[in-house]
Amino acid sequence: MVVLAACDSGASRASTTEMAGTTEHSHVTSVPTATVAPSVELPVTKIFSGEVSLPEGFTVPAEERWVFDPDADTKVTVSGNVIVEGVLEMRPRSGEVEHALIFEGVDESGFVGGGLDPVESDVGLWVMGNGQLLIEGEEKTAWSYEFDPAWEGDEVVATPYLPGEYTTFEPVSEAPPPNELGYRAELLNLSRNVRIEGTPDGFTHVFIRSTRPQTIRYAALRYVAPAFSEETDRTGRYGIHFHMAGDGSRGSIVEGVVVRDAGNHAFVPHGSHGITFRSTIAYHVMNEAYWWDPNDDDEEIAHDSHDILWERAVAAGIDLGPGGSRYRLAAFFLGDGANLVVRDSVAVGVQGESGSDRAGFIWPEAAGAPWTFEGNLAHNNDANGIFVWQNISNRHDTTTFTAYYNAQAGIEHGAYSNAYQYRDLTLLGNGVAIHSHALGEPTEGADTQTWADITSEGGGLFIDKHARPGEAPVRFLRCDLGKVMVADGGGDEPGAYDFVDCGLEPEDFDLTQAHPGTVIRVQRGDGSAYRLGVGGSVEEITPFYTEG
Q1: Quick check: helix, strand or coil at residue 209?
Q2: What span, in angstroms and rounded, lies between the C-alpha atoms of 42 and 390?
């Protein structure tokens, strides 16, 4: 064993049931304890302890285990690559012990990107071959809606949660009171006793392409992922980037991890399967925080990731910065694969200088995989809570989603026709509750696009123009929309919409910009029904919908 020491001289309305007035607010479910990925049983061959400087970086050889001293504050500073082919362990024995791996003097302008192997110029932490990270800081509540007394002395920020706020992240030492809707700010604890960092003048990255599962728990990564631009986005150097590991990543756990002050994507399971991201925080991140490459019809490589779980994941303060031009920025990019889940997660403070399609969660046209989507929350984003732009025949189920104080829409849904199934939506205080582009079509297990059980407290529905004909009327069930503006007259095709038990009367519709062929049918809660003519006529009709 070698010891190196002293060389060269940081939705829901409540995560638990709370009361605001007489209304009970509870969305986030309990989270099971994470299962830590199994370690490689190797004897310790080297220990870092105290202040260690290794300017050239280092390589942990296969079948060796290099360890930060679990009983002593240890900081290892490098200016070159750290390559892990064996085991690198950072596991302080208590919260009083700090471990840090610091990359200094990184020249981002020299990054070239690409490839499957370490690149000398792209300085970062590379986990290759059979390499494995065993990183476990002090376990703590990563984020909450109540201030945890154990956080005393930590860096804790509150997210924006008041009307018109998108960029205000305030340090706090107690929980702010609920807003007018009864929602509380998320409190994000950014302090960890295990850190991997670049510097403000030189960002680093973590690249994982290993045959073994990884354990990264309760660590903080800062100044990672070189700044986003049309050039650096192609380098593929992100915060924590599982890259084309396939089944080798199965069993990996990323829990309680903070990626902050990142110039590009924070958490990326690209072409890598079986990874759990739980109670993670992406804070002040450029570009999509939770992301992987979309498939490209011109490429032979599939970028799908299977069996991915994002649970109680937070993306807070997502931006492109000055000069950013990508208009479909999102906190969570819902990519392709199988058995994909995003649950009880939060997108807040997505912002940008151009375009209007930004959102907390996005289903882009480049990815069509169904996701299990439940219990998620998007608020105080300067555009939309959810943005969908898909023409697919798959059934997508979106349940128990909450969006509040988003500047444009709680949900903006396109593009031309699809069979999405929305249920149990709470859409409050947004520019409009729903901005609809897509018409309905049947699919297996669903006869059309359906929106059911919507609480908006009089929110608006804006129906935009259509480029293609729909196959079935879009259906709204049990909603409390206050105003429906039909503005599809500038499109090539008429729309068809059915409203059932939504409390809507003819005067609640604005049809001044409607397509002359658009059909609006309404069935009241008492079973009576009418058809609304674009010219203002009201025709009583036979009830047209029976549940089930």
Answers
A1: strand
A2: 49
Q: Tokens 């049931």 identify what position? A: 17
C-alpha neighbours within 13 Å on the C-beta side of residue 280: 31
Query: In the block, which residue shows the tokens 């059909």?
Result: 519
Give the closest residue to 373 by CA, choosing from 436, 424, 318. Answer: 424
- Give the CA angle between residues 416, 421, 422 to the nearest 5°: 105
What is the C-alpha separation between 252 and 52, in angstroms, rounded?
29
- The C-alpha R_g of the chain, in whole angstroms, comes to 25
Q: Is the pLDDT of residue 145 over 90?
A: yes
Q: Are the beta carbons of 502 and 479 closer than 8 angstroms?
A: yes
Nearest to 263 by CA among 219, 203, 208, 323: 203
Q: CA 20, CA 11: separation in Å to the nearest integer?
A: 14
This prediction has a pTM of 0.92
HEC string for 125-147 = EEEEECCEEEEECCCCCCEECCC
Cα distances from 191 to residues 98, 137, 138, 141, in angstroms, run 11, 10, 10, 11
Three-state secondary structure call for residue 484: strand
- For residue 246, how many other CB atoms are within 10 A of its CB? 15
* Contact present, 377 and 411 (Cβ < 8 Å): no
pLDDT in tens, 474-529: 999 999 999 999 999 999 999 999 999 999 999 999 999 999 999 999 999 999 99
